[in-house]
Write a structure and sequence with these properties.
heterodimer; A: about 240 residues; alpha/beta; 6-stranded mixed β-sheet; 4-stranded antiparallel β-sheet; 9 helices; 10 strands; B: about 325 residues; mainly alpha
């Protein structure tokens, strides 16, 4: 079976400096993958390149078997790839509900599985805030809104860039619960994270990126058991 | 929809006031002012569709103003088209030109966009200057706009020209207001605020950008048509860069975030010009000082300033 997302030999540069060196991995439908690494390892750059925001100088990206290398971000979005940026980028002056409606669109095959009602059910913390301007939400609420907004496009795959960053432990726990629910509903998710603990309960598999290269790939349980790898690549 | 009815009411009231004014008092100077204002205000507001509404800073918007003036004057002189047909054909041709220019320019961002639009405008300006047999070169297009009376309207009479300009000014502003307030206008502001966000939410950036570039070009050409009627011809200055700069001044003076800002800015600019050219030959110096005071004192256009006075809250559209 063809993987939903396949990345091969991806090189990305910022101007003259090269950030990613031949990054490659693949993600099957229903798989939840954690992309782990320290600050500056290339996690966000990988996510931005996959979302089409940063151009790749070399390499191939396939989405559901289709070559999407170099495709514009809007085309990737319409092909079912939803990106949740690190800084969330909600529309601060607009209400929670409007933030969701802005992003509403059928999935690549015309399917509509996510509606406002389903969002309110799946994100019980957001439902009472639906009329509030998104700029007045807490960081955790904004993160949930950004994830909900991505789902409103009925995507095939979710890219989450550091969803736990800068949030209080209790809030992180409720976001983890949310992502576990999405996983049990069969969502395909790629999460870039520094926080291994956060990913343990969410992801089935793990990749480690270091200095712009994928250096390790295993199940998340395998990584948890591998003290040496964790020390070498993830310990501060 | 409430906004639509409110805007319609404002437009209707403005129209009644403008058309009724000559009945109450007859002042050729006032009519003259409104005619010139209608040309500049349509031009400046159309520029602000790009600058304020979409974050596309064009330095070459005068191209479409100049194109409108020349195309319209030439159509009136060299064909037997009626006034209305010449206006519509000019707007259509302006849309085609804007489509071509836009297709080249909108790929670029910020300063690159500004400079390529400026370069294309100056190219057009050189064509006007050098193609003497068609355009009259640096003398401008001579020979006047032939008189063609339709439905009792004779645009060579100042009173009729005034009414014609007043109607087109209000109609043009109303149409642009509608564009700004539409979901299409909101999409453009979303792109202006953060291109990457709009893109990853599934919006093809080039499509709304090209559409607004064409629309702005059409409304600028409408301003050019009115200018051509006022001067009974066309001058290369219409397509020269200082005139595009005037429109940028008007937008900055009046307020980039208020829809009527460019209209207010145009009125201020014209009034300053009229007052100080009468008083001193150094009117440019006085104007410069006034603009400087606005820029440094208010730090935003007049209407934007009024909207953020204490107690009025933040400007809603940003």
């Amino acid at each position: 079976m063809t993987p939903l997302l396949e990345v091969r030999d991806l090189d990305v540069h910022y101007g003259v400096s090269q950030i990613l060196f031949g990054v490659g991995f693949s993600l099957a439908a229903g798989q939840t993958m954690a992309l782990l690494g320290r600050n500056g390892a290339g996690k966000s750059t990988t996510m931005k390149a996959l979302a089409g925001i940063l151009p790749a100088r070399r390499g191939v990206v396939r989405l559901a078997g289709r070559d999407v290398t170099g495709a514009a971000p809007y085309r990737l979005a319409r092909l079912g790839l939803a990106y949740v940026p690190e800084d969330r980028q909600v529309f601060p002056a607009h209400s929670v509900e409007d933030n969701l409606l802005i992003a509403q669109k059928p999935g690549p095959d015309g399917e509509i599985t996510w509606t406002l009602e389903r969002i309110w059910e799946s994100f019980p913390l957001l439902a009472p805030l639906r009329r509030r301007p998104a700029g007045r939400l807490s960081g955790g609420e904004q993160q949930m809104l950004a994830i909900a907004r991505a789902l409103m496009g009925n995507p095939k795959i979710l890219l989450l860039d550091e969803p736990s960053e800068g949030l209080a432990p209790l809030v992180v726990a409720s976001i983890a619960r949310l992502l576990r629910d999405l996983r049990s509903q069969g969502a395909t998710i790629l999460i870039a994270e520094q926080n291994l603990h956060f990913c343990l309960s969410i992801a089935s598999d793990a990749l480690i990126i270091d200095k712009g290269q994928i250096v390790y790939s295993d199940t998340i349980a395998g990584l948890e058991a591998n003290e040496e790898i964790r020390q070498r690549y993830l310990a501060l | 929809m409430n906004g639509f009815w409110r805007d319609s009411g404002v437009a209707l009231a403005a129209l009644v006031l403008l058309l009724g004014a000559p009945l109450a008092f007859s002042s050729p100077a006032f009519e003259d002012f409104i005619i010139r204002l209608s040309a500049l205000a349509l031009f400046a507001t159309s520029l602000n569709l790009l600058v304020g509404g979409s974050g596309m800073i064009s330095f070459g918007h005068g191209l479409f103003y100049g194109f409108g003036a020349y195309a319209f004057a030439l159509l009136m002189q060299r064909t037997t088209l009626s006034l209305a047909s010449a206006v519509l054909l000019t707007l259509f041709l302006a849309a085609l030109v804007a489509l071509l220019v836009g297709a080249v320019c909108i790929r670029l961002k910020t300063i690159y966009f500004a400079f390529v639009t400026l370069a294309i405008q100056m190219l057009f300006y050189s064509v006007i200057i050098s193609w003497v047999s068609l355009t009259g070169g640096d003398q401008g297009l001579q020979g006047g706009i032939p008189r063609r009376v339709i439905a009792g309207i004779d645009i060579n009479q100042q009173g009729h020209l005034y009414q014609f300009c007043a109607v087109l000014l209000v109609a043009g502003l109303f149409a642009m207001r509608h564009i700004t307030a539409s979901p299409f206008g909101m999409t453009l502001r979303m792109i202006r605020d953060n291109e990457a966000r709009a893109a990853f939410l599934g919006i093809p950036l080039w499509r709304p950008k090209l559409a607004i570039f064409v629309l702005a070009g059409v409304f600028a050409a409408l301003g050019g048509i009115l200018a051509s009627l006022f001067v009974s011809g066309a001058y290369p200055e219409f397509a020269d860069w200082p005139f595009s700069g005037q429109a940028i001044f008007a937008v900055m003076l009046g307020g980039i975030d208020s829809f009527l800002g460019p209209l207010a800015g145009s009125a201020i600019l014209l009034a300053l010009n009229d007052i100080f050219t009468r008083l001193t030959e150094y009117h440019g110096l006085v104007q410069g000082v006034v603009i400087l005071l606005f820029a440094l004192g208010l730090r935003r256009g007049v209407l934007d300033f009024l909207r953020v006075l204490p107690g009025r809250g933040e400007v809603a559209s940003r």
